[in-house]
Write a structure and sequence with these properties.
β3 and β4 form a beta hairpin. The protein starts with a strand and ends with a helix. The longest helix is centred in the C-terminal third of the chain and has 16 residues, at about 115-130. It has one domain (about 1-144). The radius of gyration is 15 Å and the shape is globular. The chain has about 140 residues and is α+β, with helices and mostly antiparallel strands. Strands 1, 2, 3, 4, 5, 6 and 7 form a seven-stranded mixed sheet that branches. About 25% of the residues lie in helices and about 40% in strands. It has helices at about 105-110, 115-130, 130-144, and strands at about 1-10, 20-30, 30-40, 50-55, 70-80, 80-85, 100-105.
């Protein structure tokens, strides 16, 4: 599995006026595009954690969103480090993003092998996407 960081965007936070950063990128398995991810957080508010959407399936020419499934997660900081929980994808910030494919409910995602794959991707993201890693390390630095 390889992570390729994509772009990022900063927008005003709706509750505090601070900056909410969204980053995205791609996941490749054996050289083939296998997933896209979106992760957002509010700078200076680690208490709000991270929101994630991971669309897993087929990508490329002739492929439709119907060939992908989206798992959404919320990440929170625990004493032992970040922890992630599956949430309903339709209720996430990316719930209306049709190109991501079917939005799995929490129960559908957890009863499907796609959730195990999504957790594996998250493990790689927090190691290999420097932007996410820096946010996590910054919080851990301030927490100690």
């Amino acid at each position: 599995m390889e992570i390729e960081s994509g772009e990022s965007a900063d927008n005003p936070c709706s509750c505090c006026g601070g900056t909410t950063r969204t980053v995205w990128g791609y996941v490749y398995c054996d050289g083939d595009a296998h997933a896209v991810y979106y992760v957002s957080w509010t700078i200076g508010h680690p208490d709000q954690g991270l929101s994630l959407a991971i669309s897993i399936g087929k990508f490329g020419e002739g492929v439709t969103p119907a060939q992908r499934q989206t798992v959404a997660m919320e990440g929170r900081f625990l004493e032992s480090g970040p922890g992630f929980m599956v949430v309903d994808a339709a209720s996430s910030a990316w719930g209306n993003a049709e190109f991501l494919g079917a939005k799995l409910s929490r129960s559908d995602a957890l009863s499907s092998p796609v959730s195990k794959e999504a957790f594996s991707i998250v493990d790689r993201l927090i190691q290999d996407d420097v932007r996410i890693k820096e946010f996590i390390e910054q919080y851990n630095h301030h927490a100690t």
